[in-house]
Amino acid sequence: METALYWSSYVTHTDVVESQPIPFSHKHHVGELGLDCRYCHSVVEKSAYPGMPSTHTCMTCHSQIWKTSPILAPLRESYRTKTPLIWNRVYRLPDFVYFNHSIHIAKGIECASCHGQVEQMPLTRKHQAFYMRQCLDCHRDPQRHLGAKLMDCSTCHR
Amino acid sequence: MPQMNSIFQDPLSRRHFIQIMGASFALAGLGSACVRAPYEKIVAYVDSPEDQIPGVPRYFASTLTLGGFAQGVIVETHEGRPTKVDGNPDHPANFGSSDPYIQASVLSLYDPDRSQSVKKNGEIRSWDDFILEMQNEKRTWNQTDGEGVCFLTEVLTSPTLIEQINKFIRLFPKSNWYQFSPVDRKNIYEGTNLAFGRTLSPIYHLQQARVILSLDGAFMDEGPARLAHIRQFTNARRVRTGSKVMNRLYMVEGTPSLTGATADHRLRLNPSEMEAFACALARKIGITESESSGESKFSDDIKKWIGIVAHDLKEHAGRCLVVCGDRQTPALHALTHHINSALGNFDKTVSWIQPVESQAKDVSSLVDQINSRGVNTVFILGGNPVYCAPADIDLKTALLKVKNRIRLSEYPDETAEICQWRLPETHALEAWSDALAFDGTASIAQPACAPFYEGKSAIEFISLLSSQGGASSHGLVRDYWKNRLKLSPFEEKWNQILRDGVIPQTRASAQRPVLKRNLPAVSSAIPNDLEIIFKEDSNVYDGRFSNNGWLQELPRPITKLTWTNAVLISAETAKKNSLENDDEVELSVQDRSVRGSVIIVPGQSENLITVHLGYGRTQAGRVGNRLGFNAYTIRRSSESYFSSVQMLKTGRKRPIFTAQHHFDMDSTKGRDLILYGDLDQFKQNSEKVVRTRKEQESLVPARPYTGAKWGMSIDLNTCIGCNACMIACQSENNIPIVGQDEVARGRSMHWIRVDRYYRGDSGSPQFFFQPIPCMHCENAPCEEVCPTAATSHSSEGLNQMTYNRCVGTRFCSNNCPYKVRRFNFFQYSDMKDSLSRMSKNPDVTVRSRGVMEKCTYCVQRIREVQIRAEVESREVRDGEIITACQASCPAQAIVFGDMNDPRSEVSKLKAEALDYGILEELGTRPRTTYLAKLYNPLPALRDLESGGG
Predict the structure, then answer these.
(1) Where are the alpha helices (DSSP H) in A8-129?
(2) Residues of B with CB below 8 A from A154's CB?
């Protein structure tokens, strides 16, 4: 009973759409326009974190197109007042887990392996709950076994 | 053993505990036990800053000062938050290493007790209010040429700040500048005046000296060059296969210092006996005939000692050095210079430069001016003169006669308390400045973050006084160097200077002074009564770091005292006065007295008391108030280093906190924790020092290591026990402080500790220091007993700690023979306070109550480098992974690396004949091993000491 609760989307928020200041569509930008993930999440190859696009990044296009769209009003407001946009986090890991994006990208793990078919999501939602099991499934898999240290606790926990 | 929860039963101590924790970031956080993960926000940039990769730290070269003198630092910042300060490898004062002060500076930045806003008479005002008032004052100054306007500063080296003050004085020629530092270099300069007729500063070249005699000179503990000295000294002492050469240090001192503890021969003498000692030495060396009357009091053994040492020095003429303690008498300094000159050491092991620091009038002349001509306005910048001033100069009363008292300081301290205007000063990591190192090398202090509060730096403050509106510290520092250096193209070269942190070709040029013919007159009288030495504290210095919890909780190197100062006495004095540890005594110098607790220190000279400055503060902040006693109250300006004293037992007991017996591995005697021997012995047969290991049988099957196999080597021969590693580790690994009551219960949390051992009699013992991090045993006893597999063995040999699995049984700690595991008995780490959270290293988990923790070999640094190497498709290079303790070590005694790589530094060290592991007989196979300690005694002197003394 309790286990079922822990795994339910009520707790994990899987497939729940978080409200966001701007209803950004990955489906439109990635699926239809074909933008690369790294255009906005620009440090994903260099850092533990993927990075979130700055207002300036959005405005590279939206100072030219959809300039008057009411949906983008918060964006223009942010740019005018130099106030950051505050997004609601979709994926969260506990503080004792140190996941590093750059090494996973470097080893050829696709974004979709964890985040799902984002390019098909009109509004961003969590594709799957992150449990240690998912990490271990991959870290244990001999096909992608890149060395014994993937199974060390301190690979993720410090 | 005290009750585990007694602090929570006693409301008063509980309140004090929480107050302390609040200030030094360990307030209990009552985490809400929710099922759902918390909602979190992501705040994106509006414009991404250039070169800032979120999640990747940035490093800035900067400068910190102590007593005015520069130490180069590299500041690590995470998204604009400074989290760690290390030494700058390009800086001549520390060569990339650091000391506890440098390491702990980052905690002071986040101290909530710092001055935050402009206040006048206790009410919050603004800088504009202050400027308005000063503009009114300035009208008067314009008419009177600044008559009655005074600055009181610390000793300064900052060229920009000195220029700003001089500019002000040019504007208002009748204004005056006074300076005061409680730990000064006056006697060095008076000494060179005596010897050469000019003011000079000696620069030692310890690496060239085969034999060093130090007369009360703790050159590795004190002074602006101490870190450079440690590096030079230990470089000449490192014994490896193929280079079995060591320098030899003779130390003559009264109270054990780290320098003395390292010495090959140590002679106990009171500070007042040094002049007679030097006279006798001068006679043996042959530069004088006359015998000083003080010498007659020396025993035959001491006379022989002097003869043997003099002979050894003469044999190494030109390759030896005699060092005089910075604060010893001018006559002793001058005599030392004569001896060094006679030994042909000038320009070889000692050279001369002009003093690099500011020369202004002394604080006593400020008191004179206030009392005679009157002072209208006094600006007190930095320092804490009201607290630190000598007892015979009543600075406080004098200052209260001044109409306008204006204080710019980081803390609302004792001096600010008596000033009307209390202005917040920026922390060194918040503003631009510059400073000179001991050898004159200039470096820029670059801020690592914007000021947290309304603070202004001293440079900005004076610019505000002299010009309309004032200028930014950045502009002022930059303009000063632009005018002075005349670089072209300026921008490019300036950026290079900022990157390097050091301005090239600014080292002071060597002077060639000529000695006066006559030897200085030395005082002949040696007092028979009790003497007292006033020393700056190894942790809080002159009191400026009182509110820093890391430094308060750090056990002092020799005494292991924490959270307090004490009255250090020898076993003989204790016996004579029937005193024991914790007894309260009253110390009186002339008509003033102070009370403190006694601690008996082996190696302390008979009839000598040592007290450390910087305690008994009332306005330090929540961490530093009401600890210990204030030794400044009995310190007189004419005898600021040592004087006669009376000691009376009060009959009361006042317990002091030491970490002496914590985590004691030596309770079963006969364990060879420290291996040591003489260099000659070792050269003949290394087995005499370290036995060759026999491979031990084990029932546990050997683990295969296909990749790296981490290990560490610690050289006890170069480790001088300075504690830098302890604070470096604390800063890197988010280690909380626990407060003095918890320390008394043996619950301090340091992951690496420095154990101190004595050998021999309590009068002249040998001292040993041994840093103990986790041994990362191959067969780790802790791993066997963990019921939840929270501690386990990694494929690279790390003994890893997974906090989220730990349920706090403490079986592991119980089973650890090295006692390196630390348990969070309470929620020591603050997880709520925003300032505290900013100070944390984001790469290391902040631990909760009920969780065991210990040294990880800085696994976050290992992973960081491994990930970077794999992203770049290359191997990890040897020396690329540097643990926090290793990075800080001024003696380079700690080396970390891959034992599977036979070419790695650590593999080579482990193959040395001096390599040994501690408690290896238990079959744990520790990965942290030690290089045994060696002494380089003079056989003739060793015979004398073992025979008679």
Answers:
(1) 9-12, 26, 37-40, 55-62, 73-81, 101-106, 111-115
(2) 794, 798, 800, 802, 856, 859, 863
